[in-house]
């Protein structure tokens, strides 16, 4: 995969992939369409079959089980309605109309190919990175038995439900509020809306690293860290 420019993303510029410019939306743009619509766009543009079918379209779970091992792209483009929603969502992140060619099974922008079955996962990673989401492809777990696989799937489903209902998860407003009250970064309630969502999460990640350092520093200075204790490093590469 050709990586996008982390520098451009950090500065709030558009980032090129496959000869097409992608944009990380600003907080103002997200607010104008509504958070729920934005997150729907993110799910659809990420080609996440499970979340699209089960979370957005309330697909029958038993029916989904029959197709969960099929390629995400094949399943999603077989539904014309879902294809149109994906086109609309991709358009949001590109700021240009996106169409789907039913003959080549390819998404098109300005009469040139955007993505198909061969590279849609790369596109998904670009979208996720520019929106501060986890872009790393999860490694497929190998199971010693079908029973072990079933138990793990039940556990993951339970954890997903718990996390979904938890009040401890930070929503976007909370993240912005944290950045606004942090000292020395120049971010406040009057200008935070001009940040891109990538800038928001990248800055939060860096601030979290530095906060961990500042919390441990007095302990280390007073000699209470212990022989094996190490100071957390904040001058290092971020995930975003």
Question: Could you characterize what this model shows?
Answer:
The protein contains eleven helices and five strands; from the N terminus they run H-E-E-H-H-H-H-H-H-E-E-E-H-H-H-H. It has helices at residues 6-11, 27-33, 35-45, 49-56, 61-65, 72-77, 80-94, 120-130, 146-165, 172-181, 197-221; strands at 15-17, 20-22, 99-101, 106-109, 112-115. Helix 3 (35-45) crosses helix 7 (80-94) and helix 10 (172-181) packs across helix 11. Residues 135-144 and 161-166 have low confidence and may be disordered.
Map the helices and strands:
Elements: H1 6-11, E1 15-17, E2 20-22, H2 27-33, H3 35-45, H4 49-56, H5 61-65, H6 72-77, H7 80-94, E3 99-101, E4 106-109, E5 112-115, H8 120-130, H9 146-165, H10 172-181, H11 197-221
Helix pairs in contact: 3-7, 10-11
Mean pLDDT: 83
Number of helices: 11
Spatial gap, N to C terminus: 16 Å
In one word, what is the shape?
A: globular
Neighbour order of strands in the largest sheet: 3-4-5
How many distinct folded domains? 2
From the helix content, strand content and strand pairing, which structural class follows?
Answer: mainly alpha
Number of strands: 5
Order of helices and strands: HEEHHHHHHEEEHHHH
Rg is 21 Å
Low-confidence stretches: 135-144, 161-166
Strand content: 5-15%
* Biggest sheet layout: 3 strands, antiparallel
């Amino acid at each position: 995969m050709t990586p996008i420019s982390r520098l451009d993303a950090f500065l709030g510029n558009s980032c090129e992939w496959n000869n097409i410019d992608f944009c990380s939306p600003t907080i103002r743009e997200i607010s104008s369409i509504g958070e729920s619509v934005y997150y729907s766009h993110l799910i659809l543009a990420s080609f996440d079959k499970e979340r699209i079918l089960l979370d957005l379209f309330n697909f029958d779970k038993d029916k989904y089980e029959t197709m969960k091992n099929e390629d995400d792209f094949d399943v999603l483009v077989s539904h014309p309605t879902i294809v149109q929603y994906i086109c609309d969502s991709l358009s949001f992140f590109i700021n240009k109309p996106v169409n789907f060619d039913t003959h080549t099974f390819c998404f098109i922008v300005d009469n040139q190919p955007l993505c198909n079955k061969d590279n849609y996962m790369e596109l998904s990673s670009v979208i996720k990175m520019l929106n501060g989401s986890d872009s790393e492809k999860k490694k497929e777990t190998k199971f010693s038995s079908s029973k072990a696989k079933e138990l793990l799937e039940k556990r993951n489903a339970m954890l997903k439900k718990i996390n979904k209902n938890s009040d401890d998860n930070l929503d976007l407003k909370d993240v912005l509020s944290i950045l606004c009250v942090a000292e020395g970064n120049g971010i406040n309630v009057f200008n935070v809306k001009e940040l891109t969502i990538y800038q928001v999460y990248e800055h939060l990640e860096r601030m979290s690293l530095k906060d961990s350092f500042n919390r441990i520093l007095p302990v280390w200075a007073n000699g209470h860290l212990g022989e094996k204790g190490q100071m957390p490093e904040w001058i290092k590469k971020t995930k975003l």
